Amino acid sequence: MSQPVLELKNAAIYQRESLILSEVDVTVEKGEFVYLIGKTGTGKSSFMKTLYGDLPLTEGEGQIVDYNLRTLKEKDIPYLRRKLGVVFQDFKLLTDRNVKENLLFVLKATGWKDKKAIDHKIDEVLDKVGMKTKGFKFPYQLSGGEQQRVAIARALLNDPELILADEPTGNLDPQTSVEVMEVLQEISRNGNTILMATHDYALLLKYPSKTLKCDGQRVFEVVQKTV
Ligand SMILES: Nc1ncnc2c1ncn2[C@@H]1O[C@H](COP(=O)(O)OP(=O)(O)OP(=O)(O)O)[C@@H](O)[C@H]1O
Ligand SMILES: [Mg+2]
């Protein structure tokens, strides 16, 4: 039996008292690349936030990388996030330090101590996103696409069981979006599981994959038409 990394059953997603999504049944298996699409305001980010513990799950069942979202405690959240790699539209790099120091910051915060292992890990993740030679650059010295690749490298630091990317190409031009998507595809081919919210239909057509859609307060799987 395969073990899903994410499983929601009859879940409801709320922003405070407003119901955003209901009767959500979603399963993501290890190794899958899954899109989450839907018009603006349909609940993609709310869905993602519930998965990384930023919004509580108060109805239905939710299991993510061995955590039960219904019983998740405040103190569990940092540990849950270590098993997830979260990537945002606006990169969220620390602007006052260079690329390597951004990655070092996360490793230190998550308990890494061995200097050799740290250096090796930083090189490894930068290599995976094609940024090995840019470790000494500050975020402001990088293009948007490069900053996003660093953010993806950061998400990979603790070998996440699931990568959650909320509109990772939302701030990028079409060409750069494709470059960042190539990185995500490569990471996916290497066995990582990825759930990516997007409303970039060009990417969906270019890189078809399992697709979930938020619409009318529901999430359902859509079958992609091939062109
Ligand atoms: N912090 C918040 N407090 C209250 N309501 C919110 C909050 N954030 C979002 N909402 C509401 O929840 C609904 C879903 O928003 P959400 O951000 O999840 O949509 P989205 O699909 O990610 O949209 P977009 O494509 O613009 O990113 C919207 O009606 C929005 O107004
Ligand atoms: Mg959003």
TrEMBL record:
Species of origin: Christiangramia fulva
Record keyword Membrane present: no
Record family assignment: Belongs to the ABC transporter superfamily.
Sequence ranges assigned to domain ABC transporter in this UniProt record: 6-227
Highest taxon of source: Bacteria
Protein name per UniProt: Cell division ATP-binding protein FtsE
Signal sequence segment: none
Gene Ontology cellular component list: plasma membrane
Free-text function comment from the UniProt entry: Part of the ABC transporter FtsEX involved in cellular division. Important for assembly or stability of the septal ring.
Keywords in alphabetical order: ATP-binding, Nucleotide-binding
MF term (GO), any: ATP binding
Pfam families assigned to the protein according to its UniProt record, in alphabetical order: ABC_tran
InterPro entries, alphabetized: AAA+_ATPase (IPR003593), ABC_transporter-like_ATP-bd (IPR003439), ABC_transporter-like_CS (IPR017871), ABC_transpr_LolD-like (IPR015854), P-loop_NTPase (IPR027417)
